[in-house]
Write the C-alpha coordinates for this entry.
Amino acid sequence: MSFFNYRNNLIHAAVAAALATINIFIVLTLDPPNLAQGVFGNIFYIHVPVAWSAFLLYFAVMVCGIFFLTKKSIEWDHRGLACAEVGTLFMFLVLTTGPIWAKPAWGLFWPWEPRLTTSLVLFLIFLGYFMLRQFGGNPEQVSRYAAVVGILAFLDVPLIFLSVKFWLPEMQSHPQVGQYFDSVNPLPTYLVIFSFISLLVLSSLMVRFRTNILSMKDAS
Amino acid sequence: MEYLITVVVLVYGAIAGWFFYQLQQQKILKRS
Amino acid sequence: MLIHLILKDLKIEWRSKEIITSMFIFGLSITLIFALAFQVAPGLIHAFASGLLWVVILFTSVLGLNRLFSLEREEHAMWSWTSAPVDRGTVYIAKVFSALIFVLMSELLFIVPFFIFLNLPANFSFFQLALILFLGTGAIVSVGCLISGITLQAGLRDVLIPILLFPSASPVAIAATKCTGFLFDKKPLADWNFWLLILCSFFVVFGLFGYLVFNRIVEE
Protein backbone atom coordinates (compact mmCIF):
# COMPACT_ATOMS: atom_id res chain seq x y z
CA MET A 1 0.00 0.00 0.00
CA SER A 2 1.16 3.48 -0.67
CA PHE A 3 2.62 5.28 2.29
CA PHE A 4 0.11 8.12 2.13
CA ASN A 5 -2.89 5.85 2.04
CA TYR A 6 -2.62 5.37 5.75
CA ARG A 7 -4.49 7.92 7.81
CA ASN A 8 -1.71 8.43 10.36
CA ASN A 9 0.75 9.30 7.66
CA LEU A 10 -1.66 11.72 6.05
CA ILE A 11 -2.14 13.49 9.36
CA HIS A 12 1.62 13.61 9.85
CA ALA A 13 2.05 15.06 6.38
CA ALA A 14 -0.69 17.64 6.91
CA VAL A 15 0.79 18.81 10.21
CA ALA A 16 4.25 18.96 8.65
CA ALA A 17 2.97 21.01 5.72
CA ALA A 18 1.06 23.38 7.99
CA LEU A 19 4.03 23.98 10.29
CA ALA A 20 6.33 24.46 7.33
CA THR A 21 3.99 27.06 5.83
CA ILE A 22 3.85 28.96 9.11
CA ASN A 23 7.66 28.79 9.26
CA ILE A 24 8.00 30.24 5.76
CA PHE A 25 5.53 32.96 6.74
CA ILE A 26 7.60 33.77 9.83
CA VAL A 27 10.82 33.96 7.87
CA LEU A 28 9.50 36.10 5.03
CA THR A 29 7.15 38.49 6.74
CA LEU A 30 8.03 38.97 10.38
CA ASP A 31 10.17 41.88 11.41
CA PRO A 32 13.64 40.59 12.11
CA PRO A 33 15.07 40.99 15.59
CA ASN A 34 16.80 44.28 16.03
CA LEU A 35 20.37 43.34 15.16
CA ALA A 36 23.09 44.71 12.99
CA GLN A 37 22.11 42.34 10.22
CA GLY A 38 19.00 44.28 9.30
CA VAL A 39 16.32 42.52 7.35
CA PHE A 40 18.57 39.57 6.99
CA GLY A 41 18.33 38.22 10.51
CA ASN A 42 15.33 36.07 9.69
CA ILE A 43 17.54 33.58 7.92
CA PHE A 44 18.36 32.38 11.40
CA TYR A 45 14.91 30.81 11.58
CA ILE A 46 15.78 28.47 8.75
CA HIS A 47 19.52 27.92 8.83
CA VAL A 48 19.87 27.04 12.51
CA PRO A 49 16.88 24.67 12.87
CA VAL A 50 17.97 22.85 9.70
CA ALA A 51 21.43 22.49 11.23
CA TRP A 52 20.03 21.17 14.50
CA SER A 53 17.82 18.70 12.64
CA ALA A 54 20.75 17.52 10.57
CA PHE A 55 22.82 16.80 13.66
CA LEU A 56 19.89 15.08 15.31
CA LEU A 57 19.43 12.90 12.24
CA TYR A 58 23.10 11.96 12.25
CA PHE A 59 22.74 11.07 15.92
CA ALA A 60 19.81 8.89 14.89
CA VAL A 61 22.06 7.17 12.35
CA MET A 62 24.40 6.27 15.20
CA VAL A 63 21.53 4.95 17.34
CA CYS A 64 20.13 2.91 14.45
CA GLY A 65 23.61 1.59 13.80
CA ILE A 66 24.00 0.46 17.40
CA PHE A 67 20.59 -1.20 17.36
CA PHE A 68 21.32 -2.89 14.06
CA LEU A 69 24.62 -4.30 15.29
CA THR A 70 23.11 -5.58 18.52
CA LYS A 71 19.64 -6.67 17.44
CA LYS A 72 20.54 -7.70 13.87
CA SER A 73 17.11 -6.72 12.52
CA ILE A 74 17.21 -5.32 8.98
CA GLU A 75 14.57 -2.70 9.88
CA TRP A 76 17.20 -0.79 11.83
CA ASP A 77 19.47 -0.77 8.81
CA HIS A 78 16.71 0.73 6.69
CA ARG A 79 15.97 3.35 9.32
CA GLY A 80 19.65 4.17 9.59
CA LEU A 81 20.01 4.60 5.85
CA ALA A 82 16.87 6.77 5.71
CA CYS A 83 18.16 8.97 8.53
CA ALA A 84 21.53 9.23 6.80
CA GLU A 85 19.95 10.28 3.52
CA VAL A 86 17.66 12.89 5.00
CA GLY A 87 20.41 14.07 7.34
CA THR A 88 22.85 14.50 4.48
CA LEU A 89 20.24 16.41 2.48
CA PHE A 90 19.69 18.75 5.43
CA MET A 91 23.42 19.11 6.00
CA PHE A 92 23.86 20.03 2.35
CA LEU A 93 21.24 22.73 2.86
CA VAL A 94 23.11 23.99 5.92
CA LEU A 95 26.34 24.16 3.98
CA THR A 96 24.72 26.10 1.15
CA THR A 97 22.63 28.50 3.25
CA GLY A 98 25.61 29.08 5.52
CA PRO A 99 27.69 30.97 2.97
CA ILE A 100 24.55 32.72 1.69
CA TRP A 101 24.13 34.08 5.22
CA ALA A 102 27.81 34.61 5.92
CA LYS A 103 28.79 36.71 2.93
CA PRO A 104 26.41 39.62 3.47
CA ALA A 105 26.53 39.33 7.26
CA TRP A 106 30.24 38.88 7.94
CA GLY A 107 31.96 39.42 4.60
CA LEU A 108 33.37 35.95 4.13
CA PHE A 109 31.90 33.13 2.12
CA TRP A 110 33.30 30.55 4.49
CA PRO A 111 34.12 31.66 8.02
CA TRP A 112 36.00 28.72 9.49
CA GLU A 113 33.57 28.73 12.34
CA PRO A 114 33.46 25.64 14.60
CA ARG A 115 29.89 24.61 13.92
CA LEU A 116 30.03 25.20 10.19
CA THR A 117 33.32 23.34 9.88
CA THR A 118 32.02 20.44 11.96
CA SER A 119 29.04 20.31 9.60
CA LEU A 120 31.38 20.16 6.62
CA VAL A 121 33.51 17.37 8.06
CA LEU A 122 30.44 15.36 9.00
CA PHE A 123 29.02 15.88 5.52
CA LEU A 124 32.24 14.55 4.01
CA ILE A 125 32.23 11.50 6.28
CA PHE A 126 28.71 10.73 5.14
CA LEU A 127 29.65 11.11 1.50
CA GLY A 128 32.11 8.33 2.26
CA TYR A 129 29.26 6.44 3.96
CA PHE A 130 27.22 6.55 0.75
CA MET A 131 30.18 5.48 -1.34
CA LEU A 132 30.62 2.54 1.01
CA ARG A 133 26.94 1.67 0.69
CA GLN A 134 27.23 1.71 -3.08
CA PHE A 135 30.57 0.01 -3.60
CA GLY A 136 31.15 -1.88 -0.40
CA GLY A 137 30.35 -5.36 -1.71
CA ASN A 138 27.95 -7.94 -0.38
CA PRO A 139 24.70 -6.22 0.84
CA GLU A 140 24.49 -7.85 4.27
CA GLN A 141 28.09 -7.06 5.03
CA VAL A 142 27.63 -3.54 3.72
CA SER A 143 24.80 -2.99 6.20
CA ARG A 144 27.12 -3.86 9.06
CA TYR A 145 29.96 -1.76 7.70
CA ALA A 146 27.66 1.20 7.18
CA ALA A 147 26.37 0.88 10.74
CA VAL A 148 29.94 1.02 12.03
CA VAL A 149 30.75 4.07 9.91
CA GLY A 150 27.58 5.77 11.13
CA ILE A 151 28.59 5.23 14.75
CA LEU A 152 32.16 6.29 13.99
CA ALA A 153 30.98 9.51 12.39
CA PHE A 154 29.04 10.67 15.40
CA LEU A 155 31.69 9.54 17.87
CA ASP A 156 34.00 11.85 15.99
CA VAL A 157 31.76 14.90 16.43
CA PRO A 158 32.88 16.07 19.89
CA LEU A 159 36.53 15.69 18.91
CA ILE A 160 36.04 17.58 15.65
CA PHE A 161 34.12 20.36 17.35
CA LEU A 162 36.68 20.79 20.13
CA SER A 163 39.60 20.77 17.70
CA VAL A 164 38.08 23.33 15.36
CA LYS A 165 36.93 25.52 18.24
CA PHE A 166 40.44 26.06 19.54
CA TRP A 167 42.12 25.86 16.17
CA LEU A 168 41.89 29.48 15.06
CA PRO A 169 41.52 31.74 18.08
CA GLU A 170 39.99 34.56 16.06
CA MET A 171 37.25 32.43 14.59
CA GLN A 172 35.00 31.88 17.54
CA SER A 173 31.32 31.19 17.05
CA HIS A 174 29.87 34.41 15.84
CA PRO A 175 28.79 36.42 18.87
CA GLN A 176 25.69 37.85 17.24
CA VAL A 177 24.17 34.40 17.31
CA GLY A 178 23.85 34.62 21.08
CA GLN A 179 21.56 37.58 20.79
CA TYR A 180 18.83 35.36 19.45
CA PHE A 181 18.73 33.65 22.81
CA ASP A 182 18.57 36.82 24.83
CA SER A 183 16.38 36.56 27.89
CA VAL A 184 15.20 40.15 27.62
CA ASN A 185 13.27 39.57 24.40
CA PRO A 186 12.10 35.95 24.35
CA LEU A 187 10.34 36.12 20.98
CA PRO A 188 13.31 35.08 18.82
CA THR A 189 13.95 32.13 21.12
CA TYR A 190 10.35 30.97 20.82
CA LEU A 191 10.48 31.39 17.04
CA VAL A 192 13.66 29.37 16.71
CA ILE A 193 12.20 26.60 18.85
CA PHE A 194 9.03 26.65 16.79
CA SER A 195 11.03 26.40 13.57
CA PHE A 196 12.98 23.52 15.03
CA ILE A 197 9.80 21.69 15.97
CA SER A 198 8.35 22.23 12.50
CA LEU A 199 11.51 20.82 10.95
CA LEU A 200 11.47 17.89 13.37
CA VAL A 201 7.97 16.98 12.25
CA LEU A 202 8.98 17.35 8.62
CA SER A 203 12.17 15.32 8.94
CA SER A 204 10.48 12.55 10.90
CA LEU A 205 7.92 12.33 8.11
CA MET A 206 10.70 12.12 5.56
CA VAL A 207 12.51 9.42 7.50
CA ARG A 208 9.39 7.30 7.95
CA PHE A 209 8.48 7.67 4.29
CA ARG A 210 11.96 6.72 3.15
CA THR A 211 12.15 3.76 5.56
CA ASN A 212 8.88 2.51 4.10
CA ILE A 213 10.24 2.74 0.57
CA LEU A 214 13.47 1.00 1.55
CA SER A 215 11.56 -1.85 3.16
CA MET A 216 9.42 -2.18 0.05
CA LYS A 217 12.54 -2.24 -2.10
CA ASP A 218 14.10 -4.87 0.09
CA ALA A 219 11.00 -7.05 0.02
CA SER A 220 10.71 -6.99 -3.76
CA MET B 1 15.23 40.31 1.05
CA GLU B 2 16.27 38.45 -2.08
CA TYR B 3 18.60 36.37 0.06
CA LEU B 4 15.73 35.31 2.28
CA ILE B 5 13.63 34.26 -0.66
CA THR B 6 16.58 32.41 -2.16
CA VAL B 7 17.13 30.53 1.08
CA VAL B 8 13.47 29.67 1.55
CA VAL B 9 13.13 28.47 -2.02
CA LEU B 10 16.35 26.50 -1.74
CA VAL B 11 15.46 24.73 1.48
CA TYR B 12 11.80 24.02 0.96
CA GLY B 13 12.23 23.47 -2.77
CA ALA B 14 14.85 20.80 -2.07
CA ILE B 15 12.56 19.12 0.44
CA ALA B 16 9.59 19.25 -1.94
CA GLY B 17 11.78 17.87 -4.74
CA TRP B 18 12.84 15.05 -2.43
CA PHE B 19 9.21 14.16 -1.80
CA PHE B 20 8.44 14.11 -5.50
CA TYR B 21 11.42 11.90 -6.17
CA GLN B 22 10.38 9.47 -3.43
CA LEU B 23 6.82 9.33 -4.74
CA GLN B 24 8.23 8.46 -8.15
CA GLN B 25 10.36 5.72 -6.57
CA GLN B 26 7.29 4.39 -4.83
CA LYS B 27 5.38 4.30 -8.10
CA ILE B 28 8.19 2.35 -9.77
CA LEU B 29 8.30 -0.12 -6.90
CA LYS B 30 4.56 -0.60 -7.00
CA ARG B 31 4.58 -1.44 -10.65
CA SER B 32 7.21 -4.16 -10.30
CA MET C 1 48.43 -13.78 21.67
CA LEU C 2 48.59 -10.09 20.91
CA ILE C 3 52.37 -10.20 20.78
CA HIS C 4 52.29 -13.15 18.40
CA LEU C 5 49.95 -11.37 16.02
CA ILE C 6 52.15 -8.27 16.01
CA LEU C 7 55.29 -10.35 15.54
CA LYS C 8 53.65 -12.15 12.63
CA ASP C 9 53.15 -8.89 10.78
CA LEU C 10 56.64 -7.70 11.65
CA LYS C 11 58.20 -10.94 10.43
CA ILE C 12 56.34 -10.80 7.13
CA GLU C 13 57.46 -7.23 6.66
CA TRP C 14 61.05 -8.01 7.62
CA ARG C 15 61.29 -10.53 4.80
CA SER C 16 60.24 -8.20 2.01
CA LYS C 17 60.41 -4.76 3.63
CA GLU C 18 57.93 -3.63 1.04
CA ILE C 19 55.60 -1.57 3.20
CA ILE C 20 58.20 0.56 4.92
CA THR C 21 60.27 1.21 1.81
CA SER C 22 57.24 2.09 -0.29
CA MET C 23 55.98 4.45 2.42
CA PHE C 24 59.39 6.06 2.77
CA ILE C 25 59.83 6.63 -0.95
CA PHE C 26 56.27 7.89 -1.29
CA GLY C 27 56.87 10.29 1.59
CA LEU C 28 60.00 11.57 -0.09
CA SER C 29 58.16 12.13 -3.35
CA ILE C 30 55.40 14.09 -1.64
CA THR C 31 57.97 16.16 0.22
CA LEU C 32 59.61 16.95 -3.10
CA ILE C 33 56.31 18.00 -4.64
CA PHE C 34 55.52 20.23 -1.67
CA ALA C 35 58.95 21.81 -1.77
CA LEU C 36 58.48 22.56 -5.46
CA ALA C 37 54.90 23.73 -5.17
CA PHE C 38 55.57 26.01 -2.20
CA GLN C 39 58.77 27.33 -3.79
CA VAL C 40 60.86 26.76 -0.74
CA ALA C 41 61.28 30.38 0.34
CA PRO C 42 63.00 30.00 3.69
CA GLY C 43 60.83 32.38 5.67
CA LEU C 44 57.58 31.21 4.17
CA ILE C 45 58.12 27.51 4.54
CA HIS C 46 58.56 27.66 8.30
CA ALA C 47 54.97 28.71 8.71
CA PHE C 48 53.69 25.72 6.81
CA ALA C 49 56.23 23.09 7.79
CA SER C 50 54.22 21.59 10.63
CA GLY C 51 51.14 21.24 8.45
CA LEU C 52 53.14 19.79 5.56
CA LEU C 53 54.65 17.17 7.81
CA TRP C 54 51.26 15.89 8.83
CA VAL C 55 49.88 15.95 5.31
CA VAL C 56 52.80 13.75 4.26
CA ILE C 57 52.21 11.45 7.23
CA LEU C 58 48.51 11.14 6.45
CA PHE C 59 49.11 10.25 2.82
CA THR C 60 51.79 7.70 3.60
CA SER C 61 49.64 6.12 6.32
CA VAL C 62 46.92 5.53 3.77
CA LEU C 63 49.42 3.74 1.61
CA GLY C 64 50.72 1.69 4.51
CA LEU C 65 47.28 0.71 5.77
CA ASN C 66 46.24 -0.33 2.31
CA ARG C 67 49.28 -2.62 1.97
CA LEU C 68 49.02 -3.96 5.50
CA PHE C 69 45.47 -5.12 5.02
CA SER C 70 45.94 -6.38 1.47
CA LEU C 71 48.27 -8.96 2.96
CA GLU C 72 45.25 -10.33 4.75
CA ARG C 73 43.17 -10.32 1.63
CA GLU C 74 45.60 -12.27 -0.53
CA GLU C 75 45.29 -16.02 -0.28
CA HIS C 76 42.26 -15.41 1.91
CA ALA C 77 44.60 -15.18 4.86
CA MET C 78 41.79 -13.55 6.78
CA TRP C 79 40.00 -16.85 7.03
CA SER C 80 42.88 -18.29 9.03
CA TRP C 81 42.35 -15.93 11.87
CA THR C 82 38.57 -15.92 11.69
CA SER C 83 38.66 -19.64 12.39
CA ALA C 84 41.43 -19.40 14.98
CA PRO C 85 40.37 -19.08 18.63
CA VAL C 86 41.32 -15.44 18.74
CA ASP C 87 39.17 -12.62 19.95
CA ARG C 88 38.66 -10.36 16.91
CA GLY C 89 39.15 -7.31 19.05
CA THR C 90 42.66 -8.53 19.82
CA VAL C 91 43.32 -8.91 16.11
CA TYR C 92 42.30 -5.29 15.65
CA ILE C 93 44.59 -4.08 18.45
CA ALA C 94 47.44 -6.12 16.98
CA LYS C 95 46.83 -4.51 13.58
CA VAL C 96 46.85 -1.08 15.18
CA PHE C 97 50.21 -1.70 16.80
CA SER C 98 51.74 -3.26 13.69
CA ALA C 99 50.55 -0.34 11.58
CA LEU C 100 51.82 2.07 14.22
CA ILE C 101 55.26 0.48 14.15
CA PHE C 102 55.43 0.49 10.34
CA VAL C 103 54.30 4.09 9.93
CA LEU C 104 56.58 5.27 12.73
CA MET C 105 59.57 3.57 11.17
CA SER C 106 58.92 5.11 7.79
CA GLU C 107 58.36 8.49 9.46
CA LEU C 108 61.69 8.28 11.21
CA LEU C 109 63.23 7.54 7.83
CA PHE C 110 61.75 10.43 5.87
CA ILE C 111 61.71 13.05 8.56
CA VAL C 112 65.43 13.65 8.12
CA PRO C 113 65.16 14.46 4.39
CA PHE C 114 62.07 16.49 5.24
CA PHE C 115 64.06 18.73 7.54
CA ILE C 116 66.95 18.91 5.13
CA PHE C 117 64.96 19.81 2.01
CA LEU C 118 62.85 22.39 3.73
CA ASN C 119 65.82 23.88 5.59
CA LEU C 120 64.12 23.71 8.93
CA PRO C 121 66.15 24.44 12.07
CA ALA C 122 66.26 21.45 14.37
CA ASN C 123 66.73 23.14 17.69
CA PHE C 124 63.92 21.62 19.71
CA SER C 125 63.50 18.68 21.99
CA PHE C 126 63.57 15.45 19.99
CA PHE C 127 61.80 13.66 22.80
CA GLN C 128 58.80 15.96 22.36
CA LEU C 129 58.86 15.44 18.60
CA ALA C 130 58.90 11.69 19.15
CA LEU C 131 55.96 12.01 21.54
CA ILE C 132 53.93 14.00 19.01
CA LEU C 133 54.75 11.58 16.21
CA PHE C 134 53.83 8.61 18.37
CA LEU C 135 50.50 10.02 19.54
CA GLY C 136 49.54 11.49 16.19
CA THR C 137 50.37 8.37 14.25
CA GLY C 138 48.60 6.26 16.86
CA ALA C 139 45.47 8.35 16.43
CA ILE C 140 45.57 8.11 12.62
CA VAL C 141 46.21 4.39 12.70
CA SER C 142 43.43 3.63 15.20
CA VAL C 143 40.75 4.98 12.86
CA GLY C 144 42.68 3.79 9.82
CA CYS C 145 42.72 0.14 10.84
CA LEU C 146 39.01 0.27 11.57
CA ILE C 147 38.30 1.75 8.15
CA SER C 148 40.66 -0.67 6.41
CA GLY C 149 38.92 -3.58 8.07
CA ILE C 150 35.58 -2.25 6.86
CA THR C 151 36.68 -1.70 3.28
CA LEU C 152 38.57 -4.99 3.01
CA GLN C 153 35.94 -6.60 0.81
CA ALA C 154 35.04 -3.52 -1.15
CA GLY C 155 35.79 -3.19 -4.81
CA LEU C 156 36.89 0.43 -4.52
CA ARG C 157 39.04 -0.30 -1.48
CA ASP C 158 41.98 1.87 -2.48
CA VAL C 159 39.82 4.92 -2.90
CA LEU C 160 37.46 4.31 0.00
CA ILE C 161 40.20 4.28 2.63
CA PRO C 162 41.29 7.90 2.08
CA ILE C 163 37.71 9.05 1.46
CA LEU C 164 36.65 7.75 4.85
CA LEU C 165 39.90 8.38 6.69
CA PHE C 166 40.64 12.02 5.92
CA PRO C 167 37.43 13.59 7.24
CA SER C 168 37.34 11.26 10.24
CA ALA C 169 40.94 12.08 11.08
CA SER C 170 40.55 15.85 10.75
CA PRO C 171 40.89 16.41 14.53
CA VAL C 172 44.22 14.61 14.29
CA ALA C 173 45.32 16.86 11.44
CA ILE C 174 44.39 19.93 13.47
CA ALA C 175 45.79 18.77 16.80
CA ALA C 176 49.03 17.29 15.48
CA THR C 177 49.75 20.35 13.34
CA LYS C 178 49.15 22.59 16.34
CA CYS C 179 51.50 20.50 18.49
CA THR C 180 54.26 20.46 15.88
CA GLY C 181 53.79 24.17 15.25
CA PHE C 182 54.20 24.93 18.94
CA LEU C 183 57.19 22.60 19.07
CA PHE C 184 58.93 24.36 16.17
CA ASP C 185 58.29 27.68 17.87
CA LYS C 186 59.92 26.27 20.98
CA LYS C 187 56.95 26.86 23.21
CA PRO C 188 56.90 24.99 26.52
CA LEU C 189 54.95 21.76 26.71
CA ALA C 190 52.35 23.25 29.03
CA ASP C 191 51.11 25.47 26.19
CA TRP C 192 50.06 22.62 24.00
CA ASN C 193 48.88 20.06 26.57
CA PHE C 194 45.37 20.42 25.25
CA TRP C 195 46.25 19.24 21.77
CA LEU C 196 48.16 16.22 23.05
CA LEU C 197 45.08 15.40 25.08
CA ILE C 198 42.95 15.56 21.95
CA LEU C 199 45.30 13.10 20.22
CA CYS C 200 45.19 10.76 23.22
CA SER C 201 41.41 10.88 23.47
CA PHE C 202 41.12 10.20 19.76
CA PHE C 203 43.33 7.14 20.09
CA VAL C 204 41.46 5.88 23.16
CA VAL C 205 37.97 6.48 21.77
CA PHE C 206 38.56 4.82 18.43
CA GLY C 207 40.81 2.12 19.80
CA LEU C 208 38.08 1.12 22.21
CA PHE C 209 35.39 1.39 19.56
CA GLY C 210 37.39 -0.73 17.12
CA TYR C 211 38.06 -3.33 19.79
CA LEU C 212 34.36 -3.63 20.56
CA VAL C 213 33.12 -3.64 17.03
CA PHE C 214 35.74 -5.54 15.03
CA ASN C 215 34.17 -8.95 15.55
CA ARG C 216 30.98 -7.66 13.92
CA ILE C 217 33.02 -6.39 11.01
CA VAL C 218 34.93 -9.53 10.23
CA GLU C 219 32.29 -12.19 10.69
CA GLU C 220 31.24 -14.01 7.56
User: Anything to note?
Assistant: Chain B touches chain A at residues 1, 3-8, 10-12, 14-15, 18-19, 22, 25-26, 29-30, 32 (CB under 8 Å). Chain B has a mean pLDDT of 88.
